[in-house]
Every structure is written in structure tokens, then in C-alpha cells.
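Supplementary Methods. Inverse-folding protocol.

Structures were first reduced to a C-alpha cell string of length 470. This string, shown here, constituted the complete conditioning input.
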């Protein structure tokens, strides 16, 4: 039985800000079902401790370089799966989110917080009480774990997954020295990156294997266009780099049993699905018309996501018949632009700012098509949700979108190449033309709903990777 210490800053439903949390909440469960002995290690955020009253105080941990002792809290989640929380109140017992305060500002001591967490994870991995065979780390917050493990005399194998290379976890030289990191790590072949320390390089340099969340993104990050300045290092480690497409928890994302929906529905229950569309149109005071094509967007509102391309496209008179509901939050200028567009076209464009779990499920279940015009997308999960719920995806051919959405008579969606409004408009025109042929449209929806994007497939690929290291 392979022992896996799964280390992340977030995991659904305990703490989540995006796709990282979704992945790290679902994959450990699947690995346990495949026979692994999994310990999921997270920081003990204050709000998380309050929601889990049955936590067991397993032991006190003196983390090297940190004078205040930490406590390991544990909770059995399922056979073969335990939740471990590192309770370091100075760093994690505070209001706000995992990385930001209540006003959305980054915590200034984030490097100290996740340096402590990473050091503790490395110590727990080699503990005599439970010694890991494989340590699987995720994104910059855990990048120091593989680096610390390489200083152990007989370290467990390590895997580092890149969810988004655009977030390297940087700090300056003064902070690096405050963290008490080995001086030799300040080197361009180790953690130094353009006169700063990049936590993510700990994983990229020292982990035994690297993975990304889709095969296409694994190739894209070897190029200057997507490599964020790290493409040279990644090309050097290309033989150790694997792209494994993410999955989704198909028990959580199941339209037939989804309690968030106005009307749950199964595949080809088109009347029940139409009831959701009418509900969403009414909720947002759009024209309630079953024949008007309704676009859905659930996204962070950032330049990466290409939402500005969609806003420009929605002004085009050629698609004036389309409606659109947007759910998300992010850059103020994008929120302002969306508000202005919704005020200009109140009968066909509406928005909700912030994240709302129930509403996100309802958008997937209601939209005829789901738009993801991302400039880059390491994997994306929304296209999987939309396919499962019968919302046909319209995506840019990049990262995981290129690996999961295909256009053609036997395809499951619509794809465009250039990150431009004209290219997106052309895809929307093709989509709208197909939408008018209801029998072909419903066949397209049915193919998407029948596809298997569950974590079972991806978990088997990770297990094979683990076993290749042992």
C-alpha cells in the first residue's frame, strides 16, 4: 500500500479559492479508493477549525526555524484517507482567506506562513510515526517541501504539480534571509529568480517528478509565451514533466441529484433542463424566451480569462439575439465594464459579482452554451462542469481546453485559436447556427453529458506515476 502525503494550501470543501482547491479535495479521495494510504495536509485556518469540532490533537510539532510549537490535528475522512491540519495560530488563525485579508489584500507575511507550512510538511513526511512513500505537493505554497526533502538522508519520493505557473510565490532577498533558508539556495540554479526568491522553483528544481494539469499545458510551458521566464528550467527537466488532465468529482457535479438546481435533470431530459433556463432568465430579469440562446460565464475576472474579448463580442449586432449571464469577481476595471454593458442591454446581459456556489451550479444547468475565451488555461474545470450539465462549451484552444473540447460533427463544443474578439465572434456564430437546429444541438449536448471526466481516470495516471518512483 503506497503511503502518500498530499500537501496543499487548499482543498474543497475545507478551504478553496479556485481550481487548486477543487483538485486537492477530489484527487485524494480517488487515490484512497485505489488503495493508497493518503494523508491530506492543509494549514489549520481558523474558520476551518471552527467547522470541524471532531478534530483530534495528534501531537505537538516543533518546526525547525520557528520558535513557537505547532499542533497536528487529524480527522479520519474515509477508509485510507485522513485530513491533517497544521495548527500554527500565529500564521493561520486569522480572519480572511487563505492568502488575503478580509479586504482582499495579500497577507504581507505569506512567505513566512508557507515557509513554516512547507518545513512542517517535510518533517511530517519522514516522521517515524507515519513515513510517506511519496510526497505530492501543489503550487508555490508548497514549493519548499521537495527542497527540504532533498536534505534528508533517505527522502521519500516527491511529485510537484504546477496548477498555474503565473503565480511563482516571490519574495525579496531580505525576506529570504529572514526565513532562515539555506544560503546556497540563493542561486539561479536553485531558488533565485531575477534577484528574488521564487518558492515555485523549489518544486521545479528539487522534485523527482513534475506534473501539470493537462498535456497541452505541459508543452506550452516549455515556450517563452507560457513559461513565465521558467521555460529554460522546465525544458531542462522535460523528461521528468508529465501532463495529466484534471478531472471532476462526478458525485458533486451531477445534474440528476444536484440540490442547488431549480429542477434537477438527467441526460436528455430536455424539458427539465429548460425549466432551469427559464428560472435563471427570470431571476436576472432577462427576457424569458426558450428560443433565445443563453450564454453562461463563471470565472475569475482577470486578463487571463479573456472576458474582455467576450464583452467586445457581445456588442456585435450580429449576435444581438444572444443573452448572457456572468458570475465572478476580480479586476475592478472588468467589473465596471460588465456593469456598464448590463445597464446598456438589460434584457439580454446580466451579472452577479462574487462567488456563489449554488448560483454557479444553476448557471451550468441553465446556459445553452458556456464561454471560456482564456488567453491561457492550465486545465480549467468549468468546461467539464458545463459538459456534464449540458451547456455546450465555446473555448479558446489552449491548455486543458484544447485537451477536452473538440469541434466537428462528432465533437462536444466549439473552439477558436486566436485570442481576439473576431475569432471568438466566429466561434459564437458557428455555435448559434448549430443552436438553431435543435436535433443536432441536443445530440451535441448529449455527447457532452455522456463523456467521462471523472477523477478515476486521472487518479490511475497519478498512481502509475507514484509507483514508477518506488
Amino acid at each position: 500500500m503506497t503511503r502518500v502525503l498530499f500537501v496543499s494550501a487548499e482543498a474543497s470543501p475545507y478551504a478553496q479559492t479556485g481550481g487548486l482547491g477543487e483538485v486537492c479535495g477530489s484527487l485524494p479521495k480517488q487515490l484512497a479508493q485505489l488503495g493508497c494510504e493518503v494523508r491530506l495536509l492543509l494549514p489549520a485556518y481558523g474558520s476551518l477549525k471552527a467547522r470541524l469540532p471532531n478534530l483530534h490533537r495528534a501531537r505537538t510539532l516543533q518546526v525547525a526555524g520557528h520558535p513557537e510549537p505547532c499542533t497536528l490535528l487529524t480527522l479520519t475522512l474515509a477508509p485510507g484517507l485522513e485530513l491533517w491540519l497544521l495548527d500554527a495560530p500565529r500564521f493561520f488563525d486569522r480572519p480572511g482567506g487563505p492568502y488575503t485579508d478580509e479586504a482582499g489584500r495579500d497577507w504581507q507575511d505569506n512567505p513566512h506562513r508557507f515557509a513554516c507550512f512547507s518545513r512542517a510538511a517535510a518533517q511530517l513526511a519522514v516522521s517515524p510515526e507515519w513515513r510517506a512513500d511519496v510526497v505530492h505537493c501543489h503550487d508555490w505554497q508548497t514549493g519548499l517541501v521537495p527542497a527540504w526533502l532533498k536534505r534528508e538522508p533517505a527522502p521519500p519520493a516527491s511529485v510537484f504539480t504546477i496548477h498555474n505557473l503565473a503565480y511563482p510565490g516571490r519574495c525579496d532577498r531580505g525576506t529570504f534571509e529572514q526565513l532562515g533558508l539555506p544560503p546556497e539556495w540563493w542561486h539561479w540554479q536553485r531558488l533565485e529568480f531575477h534577484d528574488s526568491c521564487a518558492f515555485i522553483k523549489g518544486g521545479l528544481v528539487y522534485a523527482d517528478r513534475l506534473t501539470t494539469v493537462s498535456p497541452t499545458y505541459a508543452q506550452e510551458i516549455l515556450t517563452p509565451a507560457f513559461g513565465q521566464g521558467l521555460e529554460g528550467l522546465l525544458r531542462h527537466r522535460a523528461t521528468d514533466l508529465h501532463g495529466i488532465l484534471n478531472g471532476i468529482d462526478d458525485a458533486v457535479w451531477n445534474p440528476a441529484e444536484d440540490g442547488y438546481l431549480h429542477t434537477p435533470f438527467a441526460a436528455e431530459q430536455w424539458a427539465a433542463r429548460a425549466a432551469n433556463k427559464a428560472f435563471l432568465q427570470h431571476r436576472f430579469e432577462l427576457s424569458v424566451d426558450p428560443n433565445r440562446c443563453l450564454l453562461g460565464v463563471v470565472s475569475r475576472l482577470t486578463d487571463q480569462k479573456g472576458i474582455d474579448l467576450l464583452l467586445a463580442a457581445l456588442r456585435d449586432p450580429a449576435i444581438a439575439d444572444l443573452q448572457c449571464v456572468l458570475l465572478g469577481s476580480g479586476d475592478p476595471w472588468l467589473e465596471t465594464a460588465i456593469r456598464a454593458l448590463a445597464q446598456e442591454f438589460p434584457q439580454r446581459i446580466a451579472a452577479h459579482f462574487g462567488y456563489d456556489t449554488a448560483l454557479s451550479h444553476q448557471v451550468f444547468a441553465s446556459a445553452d452554451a458556456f464561454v471560456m475565451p482564456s488567453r491561457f488555461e492550465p486545465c480549467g474545470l468549468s468546461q467539464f462542469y458545463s459538459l456534464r450539465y449540458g451547456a455546450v462549451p465555446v473555448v479558446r484552444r489552449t491548455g486543458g481546453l484544447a485537451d477536452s473540447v473538440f469541434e466537428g460533427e462528432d465533437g462536444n463544443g466549439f473552439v477558436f485559436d486566436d485570442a481576439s474578439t473576431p475569432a471568438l465572434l466566429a466561434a459564437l456564430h458557428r455555435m448559434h447556427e448549430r443552436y438553431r437546429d435543435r436535433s443536432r444541438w441536443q445530440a451535441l449536448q448529449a455527447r457532452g453529458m455522456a463523456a467521462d471526466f471523472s477523477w478515476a481516470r486521472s487518479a490511475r495516471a497519478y498512481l502509475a506515476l507514484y509507483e514508477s518512483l518506488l
